[in-house]
Input
Amino acid sequence: LFVMADEALFQFLHNEVIQYIYKSSEHGEMENGRCITKLENMGFRVGQGLIERFTKDTARFKDELDVMKFICKDFWTCVFKKQIDNLRTNHQGIYVLQDNKFRLLTQLSAGKQYLEHAPKYLAFTCGLVRGGLSNLGVKSIVTAEVSVMPACKFQVMIQKM
Amino acid sequence: MAVCIAVIAKENYPLYIRSVPVQNELKFHYTVHTSLDVVEEKISAVGKAMADQRELYLGLLYPTEDYKVYPSHMIIVYYTPVCIFFLLIENILLYRHTRYGYVTNSKVKFVIVVDSSNTSLRDNEIRSMFRKLHNSFTDVMCNPFYNPGDTIQSKAFDSMVSAMMVQAS
Output
């Protein structure tokens, strides 16, 4: 099973990427959306490559639920060294992935401090999931919400093609 | 040793086709294209079948058969000198092609066409060829200069494929 060498390295790099993108954009409130999009697109391309590597030796997926379970267990473990804590679905194309201790938020705060900055730290991962799903043949929209860090929820809306 | 190797995107257009000799490329495009129907059939059959059908290797796509004659080739025959006509007939009658398929979890398909007269090629050799293809394809996917969906232009991929093809005489 493919495992990240040392997750701290990725966390530091991830944080610096976010700082860099925000610093190199012009000042202005509207820039926030553009930066989030850039981060999400980065995650998307990385997700595409990662999923190709991770699924190289796995059996073929039976259905959409099988794919989502793979994301929650193997994919999350390979990238974040833990599984998604809770997966819920309405069986109509909406999945909610709950991570009670999201690795990229644990260094930020243990409550509500810095909550307004949390979306920046979730954008890349949203893209990661969207990119991974895209290469598995699943078109989706992935958003994230946080109320108390480091817990967060990723919502995956499957798009019928 | 293959006579043709193809990589096809999940939207069913070719990302990469190599054949030997190079003049036969068009007919291999046809061969690979018709194989896609069989691939689709096999994948959709998996959905209803048991768990042990879930490996990525699909195996033989068609039983070994005589090479198919395509109408466009017959039309060309009438307008060419007689020697080329005989060459084509020879091609049609003597060369049998066996195709093997493999579909990744990312719905990318690999097709390997071998000369059926090559009976020394065993199943596990074909599997290892697909394994190499899949590994190289994964490397291409992870290359930041590659945009998913573009044709594959990686030299490393080219040389891996060359090593698996019959040598052009």
